[in-house]
């Protein structure tokens, strides 16, 4: 059962990595278009800013889940490096549980935000609503929760080849 769960998490991980990367690329391409239109063509386009915000929210929250699973985030180990192996393991489990609480908090309140703003249109970009703009927040926190569950029951995954993809360590 655990192997199947990790296989599913591998697929989610790769999809999340691609989604976050594409969102970053699209945002990087969209912002200069808006600047060019505003300052060179003297015609401010209405759509680059909301699209850039959607991309930023996407790569921030979905990319955070990817970084969490790969353990490529910033960690301060000054205290835990001086602990016994048993205490290190206890601190690691405690950190995982605190991450779970934080992710549940973000999931709950970002979902409430999406539901509250679901019908509110975005004037500059009428194809999506404000609630849809923030949908990557609960999705990213849910993916993070799935990775936390995997880490709690299957151990950290940063040394597996599929997770090391892109790491330089």
UniProtKB/TrEMBL annotation:
Stretches that traverse the bilayer: 12-39, 51-70, 90-111, 131-153
BP-aspect Gene Ontology terms: C4-dicarboxylate transport
An annotated GO cellular component: plasma membrane
Organism domain of life: Bacteria
Record key words, sorted: Cell inner membrane, Cell membrane, Membrane, Transmembrane, Transmembrane helix, Transport
Pfam families in the cross-refs: DctQ
MF terms (GO), sorted A to Z: transmembrane transporter activity
Domain Tripartite ATP-independent periplasmic transporters DctQ component: 27-156
Record keyword Membrane present: yes
Free-text function comment from the UniProt entry: Part of the tripartite ATP-independent periplasmic (TRAP) transport system.
Name of the protein this chain belongs to: TRAP transporter small permease protein
Originating organism: Biostraticola tofi
Lineage: Bacteria, Pseudomonadati, Pseudomonadota, Gammaproteobacteria, Enterobacterales
């Amino acid at each position: 059962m655990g192997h199947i769960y990790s296989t599913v998490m591998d697929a989610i991980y790769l999809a999340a990595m691609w989604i976050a990367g594409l969102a970053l690329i699209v945002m990087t391409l969209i912002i200069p278009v808006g600047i060019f239109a505003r300052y060179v063509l003297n015609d401010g386009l209405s759509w680059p800013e909301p699209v850039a915000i959607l991309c930023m929210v996407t790569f921030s929250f979905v990319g955070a889940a990817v970084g969490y699973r790969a353990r490529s985030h910033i960690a301060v180990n000054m205290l835990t490096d001086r602990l016994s192996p048993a205490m290190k393991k206890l601190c690691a489990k405690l950190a995982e549980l605190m991450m779970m609480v934080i992710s549940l908090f973000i999931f709950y309140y970002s979902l409430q935000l999406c539901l509250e703003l679901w019908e509110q249109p975005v004037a500059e970009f009428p194809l999506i609503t404000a609630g849809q703009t923030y949908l990557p927040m609960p999705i990213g926190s849910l993916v993070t929760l799935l990775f936390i569950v995997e880490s709690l029951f299957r151990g950290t995954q940063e040394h597996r080849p599929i997770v090391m993809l892109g790491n330089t360590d």
